Amino acid sequence: MDYVKGIFKNRPNRFIAEVEIDGKMEKAHVPNTGRCKELLVEDAAVWLKPSDNPNRKTKFSLHFVENKNVLVSLYSQQANSIVYDSIVEGKIKELVGYSVHQREKSVDNSRIDIYLSNETEECYVEVKGVTLIVDGEARFPDAPTERGVKHLKELIKLKKEKNRCIVFFLIQHPAGKFFRPNWENDPVFSQTLNEAYGEGVEILVYRCDNQLEGITLIPESLNFDLGKNFPDGIVND
C-alpha cells in the first residue's frame, strides 16, 4: 500500500487532523476516536493513506504516527481484522480448535467483535486496540469509554451463561510489552475489567509489528497486571 508522509500540526476534533504535506496544509481523517495526545503531537511524522473517492471530505486517512522511533498504528478498527485473521490462521495458540469463525456477533443490544464455536463450546472475543504507552506499559483506555464498560458487562453476562469469553488487548504500539488498565483515566473501566476477570472472563494481550508494507500480529502472548501499579496486582502467567 502506498503511503504519503506528512507532518502533524493540529487535531481540531477527534475525526480530523491538520497535516502538512510537501509544504501544503491538508485535512486527514483520523480513524481513532481516542485522545492519542501522547502520539499526535505537533510536528510528529505521520503516514497517510490517500483516497480516490471524490465524495470524501478529506483526501487522506491518518494510519501511522512515528513515536519512540517506531510506527504506531492509529487505525483502531484494523485491530479487529488483525486479530480475526490471526485466529483463522492459527497464530493465537489460546484460540485454536474452533470450526466456526464469525465477525461481529449480535448479542442483546451489543455486538461482540468475534464469535467462535466448535462442537463443545461457544466463545465471544471483544478486541481493544491499545496505543497509549506509559513508562513502557501499554494502557487502555486513553479516555473514558462507556462503550467499553458496556462490552465488559455483556461478556460477564455471557460467561455466567456458560460461554467462554475473552477481552483481547492488541497493543498497536511496538514499544508496549506489558499491559495494565488505565486506572487514572478510567477507573470505571478498570474496575469492571477486574470484575470480569474475577467472573472468569479471560484476558489476552498481544502486540503488532507495524510496517508500511503491512501489519502482522506477533504470535506471543504478553503479561498483564490489573492493579493500580502495585507489585501485588494480578499478573498473567
Mean pLDDT: 91
What is the first-to-last residue Cα distance? 38 Å
How helical, in percent, are the residues?
A: 10-25%
Query: Helix/strand-derived class?
Result: alpha+beta
What are the secondary-structure elements, in order, as H or E? EEEEEEHEEEEEHEEHEE
Tally of strands = 15
What are the segments in which pLDDT stays under 50 over at least 5 consecutive residues?
Answer: 230-237
For the report, how would you describe the main beta sheet?
6 strands, mixed
From the spread of the alpha carbons, the general shape counts as globular
Tell me the fraction of residues in β-strands, as a range.
35-45%
How many H/I helical runs? 3
Sheet with most strands: strand arrangement: 7-8-9-12-14-15
Radius of gyration equals 18 Å
Question: If you had to describe this structure to a student in words, what would you say it looks like?
Answer:
Helices cover 16% and strands 41% of the residues. It is built from 3 helices and 15 strands. The protein has helices spanning 78-88, 146-160, 187-198; strands at residues 4-13, 16-21, 24-29, 45-50, 60-67, 70-73, 100-107, 110-117, 122-130, 132-134, 137-140, 164-171, 179-181, 202-211, 214-218. Strands 7-8-9-12-14-15 form a 6-stranded mixed sheet. The protein has a 5-stranded mixed barrel with strand order 1-2-3-5-4. It has a 3-stranded mixed sheet with strand order 10-11-13.
List the SSEs and their pairings.
Elements: E1 4-13, E2 16-21, E3 24-29, E4 45-50, E5 60-67, E6 70-73, H1 78-88, E7 100-107, E8 110-117, E9 122-130, E10 132-134, E11 137-140, H2 146-160, E12 164-171, E13 179-181, H3 187-198, E14 202-211, E15 214-218
Parallel strand pairs: 3-5, 9-12, 11-13, 12-14
Antiparallel strand pairs: 1-2, 1-4, 2-3, 4-5, 5-6, 7-8, 8-9, 10-11, 14-15
